[in-house]
Amino acid sequence: MTTGQQAARSDIRQVLAIILASALVTVAAALILGLPTILSDLAITAVILFAIGAGGLAYLVPNIATRLR
Length: 69
Known about the structure:
Elements: H1 3-33, H2 38-68
Helix pairs in contact: 1-2
């Protein structure tokens, strides 16, 4: 396995970590906020986490593609 492929695997792990962290924070927020407020607060949380995740993915995906070449 080349160094580029190893780096791409590392980047893929980072992408998966971002997705997992976003999901865990969303679930934790839902549990902390309680059922009556889940829908409105969860929507806000989801938008914030999506923005963070999209920023991370926008950075990592081109790196993965470049390293796999």
